[in-house]
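Worked example 2:
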Amino acid sequence: MRVTELNIYPLKSGRGIPLQASDISAEGLPGDRRAMLVDPSGHFITQRELPAIATLLAFHENGGMRFSSDGKGEIFAAASGQRMDVAVWKSIVNAAVADDEVNGTLSEWLGRDVKLVFFDESAERIASLEWTGNETPVTFADGYQILVTTTASLAALNRDMQANGEDSVGMDRFRPNIVLETDEAWAEDRWSAIEIGGIRLDLVKPCARCIMTTQDQQTGSRDVPSPMKAMGRIRMSADRRVPGVLFGWNVTPRGIGRIAVGDVATIVEDRTEGWAIKRRG
């Protein structure tokens, strides 16, 4: 079992950036989800309600970020010195805010009034203690530090789609940080922890999926094949703690170090039972 992809998403809900190697910190992959768009009240905005965010590409550069959108040029954004409280699900984070000119440009590009905020050195947030068991830092990700998916599970999902006359989808629909090449579909449901590059990674919670998986991750279009029906057929959670359809696992790192594409991943602890999935028929 080896790492086949590493990805970060500097802007929450923006385009992913593939990496050949990455450090692993307590927050996950450095640079991941360090910026986010919010409405004027400070509530976070994602592709769920604004699919056009998929057209934004953000790179870390000189202490800030450079943004581009297809056919609309580029802008450089950095913290302005202003701060505001922003909401990411149930978390409230005191974040740094970009200047008015940057916010105006992004609002024009997206056709909606938005502000750009940064998770800087003064921002604080922890992942859910219910699942991690102890206080672990996280940035603007939905809830946890790293998302892991596997190639065998995607292949199984696509086989079901094709068997039902639906076109297949790529792994980018699920926005993983780490993709593992595997032979057995859904084997990750039985893993409690894996190790890559000497770093223990605990699989703390399966990832419930939403409408973002139905959107093209370059254009934001929803006029593309959707994996939701297939996940409903074969990946519906039977555990009320995490309702809905599942694909991938949220992971909390228990060490620091560096990993790379091609690294071997080893299962170091199994669950006594796999995650409960509703069976068809």
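The first helix runs from residue 100 to 110. The mean pLDDT is 96.
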